[in-house]
Design a protein that fits this description.
Elements: H1 9-12, E1 16-19, E2 36-37, E3 43-44, E4 51-54, H2 60-70, H3 81-95, E5 96-100, E6 103-104, E7 107-108, H4 114-118, H5 134-142
Antiparallel strand pairs: 1-4, 2-3, 4-5, 6-7
Helix pairs in contact: 2-3, 3-5
């Protein structure tokens, strides 16, 4: 048996695509008008998932981010939701390595937009519902070993997309290809 399929450490440093969910409803987010019906009445599936590429918590980069967060002073007893959210973002911002089909106004989001993206909504540990803030989604996905287990072609992690398991190298500020 090839035990490289259990390697969650090296893959964690490559990053994997997280299909983002609506922060209130929990519904998957898409950057196209599907599914809809074509001229023959057949359903045309959606093809452009809104993805953020995330490093896994077992990788070297994430471990360093957690080390930095652990050195921060304890939050005061009167800390606000914003204080807790800011604390989550200390780690989350270092785990995001790219975007696909995520726009900021009229342009594609880039690595320069990570703080903007994470600040779009605030984590709320008291709220009950189906949704999570984007920072919470990033951290939960990063911590999901199944999303980073083994060789990319051996991964059975959700969410699946045509780009799952493949993260082409990017230079800062460049958008990932829409279809890989």
């Amino acid at each position: 048996m090839d035990f490289t399929s259990f390697d969650s450490r090296s893959v964690a440093d490559e990053g994997r695509p997280l299909h983002l969910r609506h922060p209130s409803t929990g519904e998957l987010l898409w950057d196209d008008q599907g599914p809809h019906l074509d001229d023959d009445g057949a359903e045309v599936p959606r093809e452009k998932p809104c993805l953020v590429y995330v490093l896994g918590t077992e990788g070297r980069v994430a471990q360093e981010a957690f080390r930095e967060a652990a050195k921060l002073p304890k939050l005061p007893d009167d800390a606000t939701m914003q204080d807790y959210h800011d604390r989550l973002c200390v780690t989350a911002r270092k785990l995001v390595v790219g975007f696909e089909n995520v726009d900021r106004n009229t342009r594609a989001a880039t690595m320069a937009d990570v703080d903007w993206f994470l600040a779009l909504n605030v984590s709320n540990p008291v709220a009950r519902g189906k949704g999570r803030s984007f920072a919470e989604q990033v951290l939960a996905f990063s911590n999901d070993r199944s999303a980073f287990l083994g060789k990319p072609e051996a991964s059975s992690s959700a969410p699946r997309s045509r780009s799952a398991g493949r993260t082409p190298a990017l230079k800062a500020g460049r958008k990932r290809a829409g279809k890989t």
